[in-house]
Amino acid sequence: MTLTSPACPVAGTLPGEVETKIKGVPGVNGATVELVWDPTWSKDLMTDAAKLQLNMF
User: How far apart are CA 10 and CA 20, in angstroms?
Assistant: First the structure.
């Protein structure tokens, strides 16, 4: 996964939270979340539904 910036205030906690949630999905036996910075995050990576929900149009 990638975050909006390396200085993101949840950079230290969000990857672990995501991993925990993924492991909680029925039928999923394991998960490893890797934090990457390529590709650089931009709102173009968001679905139209996500942009609408966050009023980012």
Answer: 15
Q: Tell me if 20 is assigned to some domain.
A: yes
Is 1 among the domain residues?
no
Residues 5-38 pLDDT 10s: 889 899 889 999 999 999 999 999 999 999 998 9
Query: Is 20 within 8 Å of 5 (Cβ atoms)?
Result: no
- Tokens found for residue 42: 């931009």
Please say if the pLDDT value at position 57 is more than 90: no
What is the spatial distance between Cα 11 and Cα 9, in angstroms, rounded to a whole number?
A: 6
User: Is there a contact between 1 and 38 (Cβ–Cβ < 8 Å)?
Assistant: no
The residues, ordered by sequence, that sit 6+ positions from 44 with a Cβ below 8 Å of its Cβ are none
